[in-house]
Design brief:
Structural class: mainly alpha
Radius of gyration: 19 Å
Largest sheet: none
Oligomer: single chain
Distance between the termini: 61 Å
Number of strands: 0
Order of helices and strands: HHHHHHHHHHH
Helix content: 55-70%
């Protein structure tokens, strides 16, 4: 059923993205919405859409559910990772938005797999820095030399400011511990 819904969407017989913006969709009772969320979660991997439209869909689902929509977000990660151009476009969207969703950014950076793109966000003095650090550590290096360079960058980040929040999760964390300085 989910593949068929996605196929109908892709052939433009129905528009699952536009449906999510209707008053009827927005007015669904929460107990029914859980089922609808499951339908979208299963259809998203097969849907054709622009990254901006797909991100808007996720925002609508989150708004409807009253918070974080874990099921569609997990599938969004898969959708982004299926096509490198999608990941690249999401990364480019984040460049102009300092408040871009951190979880989506880390997923896009890892799926894009370009250490240079992740490193470019590390210089940002905003919320995009943390997902960039997390992504840099998660991107599979192209070679041992690249792995060593990445490890060196990550160590330099930690060594540069032992009070910096280099742990990525949804809550701010400041370690009361001071890391010992590395021998030179």
């Amino acid at each position: 059923m989910h593949a068929r819904l996605a196929a109908l969407h892709n052939s433009q017989s129905i528009d699952l993205l536009a449906l999510s913006a209707t008053p009827e969709f927005q007015g669904l009772d929460r107990r029914y919405f859980f089922t609808i969320q499951q339908v979208y979660r299963n259809a998203i991997p097969d849907m054709k859409a622009t990254p901006s439209d797909m991100l808007e869909l996720i925002r609508r689902i989150e708004k409807q559910i009253g918070g974080f929509a874990a099921l569609p977000r997990g599938t969004l990660r898969i959708w982004i990772g299926q096509v490198p151009e999608r990941a690249k476009e999401v990364v480019e969207m984040a460049r102009s938005d300092p408040a871009f969703d951190r979880d989506i950014l880390v997923d896009a950076l890892v799926a894009f797999g370009d250490e240079t793109a992740a490193t470019s966000f590390i210089a940002a003095a905003d919320a995009r820095r943390q997902p960039a650090i997390a992504a840099l550590g998660a991107i599979k290096p192209r070679s041992m030399k690249a792995a060593d360079a990445t490890l060196g960058r990550l160590i330099a980040i930690v060594d540069g400011d032992s009070d910096e929040d280099v742990r990525f999760d949804n809550t701010p964390f400041r370690s009361p511990l001071t890391l010992p300085s590395r021998p030179t």
